[in-house]
Amino acid sequence: MRVLDKFIFVILFFSLLFISLNRHSRHANFNYHSQLFADKAGYHIYFPAYFYYAMDPKNLPDSIINKTGQGFSIKNDKIITKYPIGVAICQFPFSSIAAIADYFLDNHTNRGFTNYHHIALNWATAVWGSIGLLLIFLSAIRFWGFSYGQSYMLIFGILFLSNLLYYTTRDCGMSHAYSFTVFAGIQYLIYGCIKKQTIQNKDVYVGFILGSLLIVLRPLNGVFVIFPLSYIIASNWIIIKKITLDVANRNWLVGTMLAAFPIGLQLAYNYYAYGKPFADGYENESFSNIKRIDLIKLWFSPNNGALLYSPILILVFISIFQAWKTDTFIRVYFIYFLVISVTYASWWSPELGCGFGHRGFTEHLAFFALPIGMYIHKMSGITTRVIQASMIIGGILLFLCQWNFDGCWQAQSDWDWTAYVDFFTLKIVF
């Protein structure tokens, strides 16, 4: 990386952190705008439950479940959360710093849910989100042959023309920004091994850890990830066949042990909560919508429509269309998008509840970055300038939209365009 690139990414990180802290400073803790509320509290509860309360619900602060929007519950004298442990693992260093700060400042009220623990999530997601964007930037420069300008156009397009910014700043306690970075890491690792045509000890360690995090962050992504990985392998098969293994036998064992740790934590919690290592916290929720799938609604509805709130994904289809005859394997990305769509459209709540745009696609922007980048890479002349201008205008409008968004779709109808247009109303004084 050039000195300029390092400077830009430092500015990017602090910009994300500023936006995140600024947004949450406008609201008190323990309301639906706060960092530790509803789903986000459900992801976070592992840390305070273990380190403060010995997994005993009797030790929890009074009314903390209601204060945090019932993101977790108590059942059979157990602290129950349906959310996987991956987010808590990713946030662990930041939660630890918050705990240390509380210790030295003698903050004992609502331990694990103090103001420092709220702020820790702002820092955690800004760090992870910045790393994810950096990994995509480096992949574009080092492996995909993009220019610096094209690479910046790619990462800023992904950030500002999708709901990634929202889940990196507003809903910073959700799993999506972390999964995005894990995906970007897996992609970077594979292309790195392809370029150097060897797999070394560090590749095994990193690969096993990323694979383990993928599972404990959002297990369903373990199925989705098969498709982009299939493209990478198939399109580079000639080189992949030449890859050599430079890994000592003991390092495979070390890698396995590293991967087993996060998964082991999840299994241990499952045994504590449900009496068995393999349990599904979502067992009372199902794919009951399978017979009435509505993809048009999933993609274009003002109520979390995927393409409406993440228009950068449209470039995926344009890229596929352009390369339909010259790159047979590129069609895998169409199947990838369709499988994600059908899966979530089959879910009992296709829009996945409250959120800005369909969050089921957010982390997959890391893999969709390649076909999006392919389109950007092919642009030239007037097309480049038009697309750049369009992306800037679109980014500004979408930023305004997500800034005005209150957290949930409040209209009576999923197709209330008046309510949608109101998100773009300029509510600032000139």
Q: What kind of sheet is the major sheet? A: 2 strands, antiparallel
What is the count of β-strands? 4
Mean pLDDT figure: 93
Overall geometry comes to: globular
Give a structural overview.
The protein has one domain (3-50, 117-422). The two termini are 39 Å apart. It has helices at 3-25, 39-44, 46-51, 64-67, 86-104, 115-142, 148-160, 164-169, 176-196, 201-217, 221-224, 226-235, 237-240, 249-274, 295-300, 306-309, 314-322, 331-346, 365-378, 381-404, 417-422; strands spanning 73-75, 78-80, 198-200, 244-246. Strand 1 (73-75) and strand 2 (78-80) form a beta hairpin. The protein has a two-stranded antiparallel sheet. By secondary structure, it is mainly alpha-helical. The model has no long low-confidence stretch (mean pLDDT 93). It has 21 helices and four strands. Helix 12 runs antiparallel to helix 18. The longest helix has 28 residues, at 115-142.
